Amino acid sequence: MLSTMHDGYDATESSTVVSGGSGDTADGAFPATLRTALRRSGLPLDRVSERLRTQGLFVSPATLSSWQRGHRRPEHARSLRALDALDELLGLSDGTLRSLLGPRKPRGRVADSPRRNPGPHGHVQTAMGDGLAAVLRDADQRTQALVANEVVKVGADGAVTAVASTTVLRAHRHGATRATFAHIIDHEANEPPHISVTSGYVERSVYMKDLNLLVIDVHFGHVLAKLATEVTSYTIEVTPSGNPSTHYGRWEGSPVREYLLEARFHSSAPPRSCRHVYSEQIGASPLTEKCLAMNAPDRAHFLVTRCAPGVHGIAWGLAG
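Above: the chain sequence. Below: its structure as tokens.
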């Protein structure tokens, strides 16, 4: 059983390696513009990397160097968010660096392993195929979760009854109006869960019963300016099924600074054990598992800082 939890990423994981490139290619405008902007800023690459890190964007100096030399090009959504931050940091107009990338043109090999896809929803596409990717394809990529706090409740029959979720988001581009959330709820109810939003409204919800997956688009009810923050809060009520549940998880497509998940069990049905589980992809087996100490006979929780993209959740076994 693995026990090492991922706590971050480097954008090199999702970059295409360009053979023999010096930036003087069809995509040469991107490295040239980045190189010029970096030189004009007077900031060394390690300082730029440090400033990106304060925004939850983990791009190493080596990666920045590869980008400006044209040896690599950013492909993954996480890397593209770093470009948006670089626009502001280096005094470029919004969207400048993204616009210079052009369509993806793979040359040579791809740096990722086969299970990782450098598309905007790579963790989803490689695990479950295009069907699930289509559900998340229209997710608004202008916001990023900073802090998430969730409570999952388990009833006397051992089944999940509700999930209360609160997330603090920040807009990294102007014009954000909504955010997408994905929950993996192990239950056997035939009806989709009911969602009650505290502020804003549910613009769309998709319930994929075969995956025990609920995808929710929450509209803020207004437009966010760049770097503005928003708090979303909602409750998911699950139709009773009578069959015990074994796990709950939440998928994130980008890093989250802090994620707190608490499981509250009915006093008449305490768990035998609880584990913090992490998967890189929806539908994949856990990559890591870590036993959780019970705060009380009927409660357990975990707190992750610099939460890696993927599915974090709690798995349990009921006594008896």
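Residues 1-26, 105-130 have pLDDT under 50 and may be disordered.
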